[in-house]
Amino acid sequence: MRLPSRIVDLSMPLDNETTCDPDIMRPKIQYVSQKDNAEAMAAFFEGMRAGDLPHGEGWAWEVITLTTHNGTHMDAPWHYHSHDKTGTPMQTIDQVPLDWFFRPGVKLDFRNTPDGSIIQPTDVEAELKRIGHTLQPLDIVLVNTKASEYYGTAEYLDHGIGMGKDATLYLTRDHGVRVTGIDAWGWDAPFTFAREQYTKDRDARAVWQGHWAGIEQPYCHMEKLLNLEQLPATGFVVSCFPWKIKGASAGFVRAVAMFD
Known about the structure:
The chain is α/β, with parallel strands linked by helices. Helices cover 18% and strands 20% of the residues. The protein is built from six helices and 13 strands. It has helices at residues 38-42, 77-80, 121-131, 165-172, 191-201, 209-216; strands spanning 6-9, 28-32, 61-65, 73-75, 102-109, 118-119, 140-144, 162-163, 179-182, 220-223, 236-239, 250-252, 256-259. The strands form three sheets. It has a nine-stranded mixed β-sheet with strand order 1-13-11-5-7-9-10-4-12. Strands 2-3 form a two-stranded antiparallel ribbon. Strands 6-8 form a two-stranded parallel ribbon. It is globular and about 70 Å long. It starts with 5 loop residues before the first strand and ends with a strand.
């Protein structure tokens, strides 16, 4: 078997310090050291003392409190709505087909598009024409915005574009795409811009329109990717299998791109 010569990590690390979520959903990681756990490990064996272990150290572990949407993750259709347009219950992350998550990748570069812009089908078509790619069913489409340039700063949440309902359906309903991804906090426009728009038009259906496109055509998407700027437009494979969490709206992903 021939292996790819290069693997690019598309996932962000999970830590206590980096601001990449609103305060109400930031993760908390408690680090329990080898010394901390020495007595607990020794207690499994009658007569063993912590000092009997090499240098008095047991095993290390971490206690993590988080949501399924912390860090780089895969949204399941269940995240968008309880049922699709036919009334069929939406799939949870443990129900979506595994063959969606190891497929050829395509990168759409919208880094020069102003933050808050709502991407339309014509924008997607123009970018596909620029890179010379014809979408194939089950292509994994990754959207590169300028959001990841702000990763690690308080500004991260306020940068990026929104994949509009029609643009999302262009990919999913019209061309058979089932997995997409973006380097911003969300698939839709940052809430900073969505709030401004809602103040003007009072259209609640527009604020999360890319997600709610999944009601018409269920699909999965990844959020909070990194390093998309290191990828070519095409010619790579994406591996992005989500954690199998029963009944969950999302699963954590160690997403990578592989290419020569």
